[in-house]
Amino acid sequence: MNHLAIFASGAGSNAENIIQYFRNHPRISVNLIVCNKSGAGVLEIAEKEGIPVLLIEKEPFFRGPAYVAELQAKKIDLIVLAGFLWKIPEALVRAYPGRIINIHPALLPKYGGKGMYGRFVHEAVIAAGDKETGITIHYVDEQYDHGQPIFQARVLVEPGDTPETVAKKVHFLEYEHFPRIIQEVADLQNRS
Whole-model pTM? Predict the structure, then answer.
């Protein structure tokens, strides 16, 4: 059985989609929600679904043991970042090499890095006049939005699109593809 930890900072719509996808899965389960904001919507989702929560603080995450012991105690095999806005510290990357994945709302390497999330990404895509955008699912390393890409999906940016309309298109891609790619990554780990 593969045990997932979902790291999220906000409303948790992607986390909820992942939880639903794996609800009755024979080999993969969501065992922990990790959050860095006490009022985040993802915490309500975790409570409703009966999934344990680990509320983390900045100092021990970045300058301490990065909560590795807590993750290992829950027997976490794969970490999934679903709208988690903090950079992952080196201690956690070392403890889970090739076992942390992120979804980014753009076609990396474009529009990645510190401060590039959500609306800021979509505004940048429109301001640049790009004809397409999409999602990138990638492995996480010590840099923002830098790890090896696993999967990309594209969507057209049409004349008249706004950051809100682009966000809707990108969310559709996230909901459609992220759980499936998580399953593929988990299955690859089981084979190795």
Answer: 0.96
**Domain CATH for 26:** 3.40.50.170
Q: pLDDT tier at 192 (50, 70, 90 boundaries)?
A: low
**pLDDT of 164 above 80:** yes
101: domain range? 2-191
Catalytic residue among 3, 104, 171, 177: 104
Q: Is 104 a catalytic residue?
A: yes
Cα–Cα distance list, 24 to 18, 28, 29, 32, 143 (Å) = 12, 8, 8, 16, 34
**Total domains present in the chain:** 1
- Give the model confidence (pLDDT) of 19-59 as tens digits: 999 999 999 999 999 999 999 999 999 999 999 999 999 99
